[in-house]
């Protein structure tokens, strides 16, 4: 699961409103204008740390309360489930995020092959004790292009 527009879904604490004011030069008027960000500003160091604390809390709830083997990297949540329980677990995870008001990007259903964060994981031979982890095809192309 991947959270949609993650930083824009996490509001700034009203007590910190004075700390979320930005000054930018208006390219049309060349005047400096101010605005207050209502959501975590994408790219700000503190916003990244704040978002990661929230992501860790969501992962902890999924693993400790719901018992779902799950991990996260920023806004990407990867979980594993037995095929027989996959549909129910998927509904539970989607419902969990919806209940908390988090919008998710379109996702693929559970599969023996998935691509979290630039790698491809193939569990098709897991019953034989083999898990294959490779770069995604797009990453291989990107590496090939940069090596030329």
Number of discrete helical segments: 3
Sequence of secondary-structure elements = EEHEEHEEEH
List the strand order in the largest sheet.
5-6-7
User: In one word, what is the shape?
Assistant: flat
Overall pLDDT level:
86
Please identify the structural class as seen in this structure: alpha+beta
Helix content: 25-40%
Number of strands: 7
Query: What integer value in Å does the Rg equal?
Result: 20 Å
Low-confidence stretches: none
Could you tell me how far the N terminus lies from the C terminus, measured between alpha carbons in angstroms?
A: 34 Å
Give the percentage of residues in beta strands: 15-25%
State the major sheet.
3 strands, antiparallel
Structure description:
With 148 residues, this protein is an alpha+beta fold. Strands 5-6-7 form a three-stranded antiparallel sheet. Strands 1-2 form a two-stranded antiparallel ribbon. The chain has a two-stranded antiparallel sheet with strand order 3-4. It is flat, with a radius of gyration of 20 Å. The mean pLDDT is 86. The protein is built from three helices and seven strands.
Provide tags for this entry:
148 residues, alpha+beta, three-stranded antiparallel beta sheet, two-stranded antiparallel ribbon, 3 helices, 31% helix, flat
């Amino acid at each position: 699961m991947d959270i949609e527009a993650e930083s824009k879904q996490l509001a700034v604490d009203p007590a910190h409103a004075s700390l979320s004011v930005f000054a930018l030069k208006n390219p049309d008027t060349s005047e400096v204008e101010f605005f207050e960000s209502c959501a975590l500003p994408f790219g700000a160091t503190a916003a990244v740390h704040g978002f990661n604390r929230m992501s860790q809390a969501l992962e902890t709830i999924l693993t400790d309360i719901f018992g779902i083997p799950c991990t996260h990297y920023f806004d990407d949540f990867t979980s594993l489930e037995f095929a027989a329980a996959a549909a129910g677990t998927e509904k539970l995870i989607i419902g969990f995020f919806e209940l908390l008001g988090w919008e998710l990007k379109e996702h693929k259903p559970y599969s023996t092959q998935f691509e979290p964060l630039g790698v491809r994981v193939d569990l098709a031979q897991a019953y034989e004790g083999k898990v294959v982890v490779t770069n995604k095809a797009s990453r291989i192309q990107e590496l090939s292009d940069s090596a030329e």
